[in-house]
Specification:
It is a single chain. This protein has 105 residues and is mostly beta strands. It has helices spanning 32-40, 56-61; strands at 2-9, 14-23, 69-85, 89-100, 103-104. β3 and β4 (89-100) form a beta hairpin. The longest helix has 9 residues, at 32-40.
Length: 105
């Protein structure tokens, strides 16, 4: 899934952002689990008069496929700082936590 993120930090330690997964690059992805499932529910495995087992086409149509994901969130950065490695390489660090709501479409 292709993910985009847009955020704005109101202060150094709090911000708001929206993340969105816009393009599902594997909408019809199948795994070996799907192959095992399809062979288990193949026509002919039903007992006479048993209509509870779906056909492979019906089972594939009922699978959930995520088209888009939207995540509005509040970003909290309670600890920030910088350090150096041997006095030559300087790096910044922060510890971040998020609070948000996930919407899947």
């Amino acid at each position: 899934m292709l993910n985009l993120r847009l955020g704005y930090h109101i202060t150094d330690w709090i911000g708001v952002s929206v993340s969105a997964g816009l393009l599902n690059v594997t909408p019809n992805w199948r795994s070996s689990f799907n192959d095992q499932l399809n062979s288990a529910i193949a026509p002919g495995n039903n007992a006479p008069g048993d209509v509870k087992t779906p056909t492979p086409a019906n089972a594939a149509a009922a699978e959930n496929r995520i088209g888009m994901v939207i995540l509005p969130q509040v970003d909290l950065v309670p600890f920030t700082g910088k350090f150096s490695l041997f006095g030559k390489l300087f790096m910044n660090y922060d510890f971040t936590s998020w609070l948000g709501l996930l919407l899947s479409i």
